[in-house]
Every structure is written in C-alpha cells, then in structure tokens.
Write a structure and sequence with these properties.
The chain is mostly beta strands. 7% of the residues lie in helices and 27% in strands. The chain has a domain at 32-94. It has one helix at residues 32-38; strands at residues 15-19, 22-26, 45-46, 53-54, 67-70, 73-77, 88-90, 92-93.
Length: 102
C-alpha cells in the first residue's frame, strides 16, 4: 500500500466502551488509551504509594503508567490494547490485585 492511499481516509463508525461505568466512543484502530484521551480522560490509575493519578506517559508499553482494569483483568496496558466494542475499563487503584481461582 502506498502511504498516499491513506490521505482522506475515513475511519469506520465509532464503537462504545465503558470507562468507570460511563460510555466513551472509540474509533476503529484506536487503543483504549487513545479513546480515553480523545474523551478528555487523562488519568485511569493511582500510584501504589500516595495515590497520585497516572495515565499514559510513553505510549509504547514501556513505562507501565497506563495500567488499568480491562474486562475484570487488572494491570492491562491501555496504550497497547485496541478498543473493542463493549470493553469495560475501570480505574485501577494501587497494585491492582486480581481475584485468584485456587
């Protein structure tokens, strides 16, 4: 594909994800972090010590500042996960421990 083929390209219809219980529009191909940014959400995690807000920092999965709970699974890097219709993202507090099936 020639990069010029993308000039004027239009994304498909938006899909809906949920962030802390409220609907957020996400375009096809957007990561969860990009969809939240586009909606004005800048933080979706708090630090382990001090509870300071965090969101995306590096955008390439290296810094782990973008961790959140996605579809019940904690410690997911939102900058790497594509937004899928019906995804549920929840603010992660501190360590983000998961329930263990034992």
């Amino acid at each position: 594909m020639d990069p010029l083929d993308l000039v004027g390209a239009e994304p498909g219809p938006a899909r809906t994800i949920l962030f802390d219980g409220r609907p957020v529009a996400a375009l096809p191909g957007q990561t969860l972090a990009a969809a939240l940014w586009a909606d004005g959400v800048l933080a979706w995690r708090t630090t382990r010590h001090g509870g300071r807000p965090r969101g995306a920092f590096c955008g390439i999965g290296q810094c782990f500042d973008c961790l959140a709970v996605v579809n019940g699974r904690p410690n997911q890097r939102l900058c790497l996960l594509p937004a899928e219709p019906g995804d549920t993202v929840t603010t992660q507090e501190g360590h983000g421990h998961a329930e263990l099936d034992v």
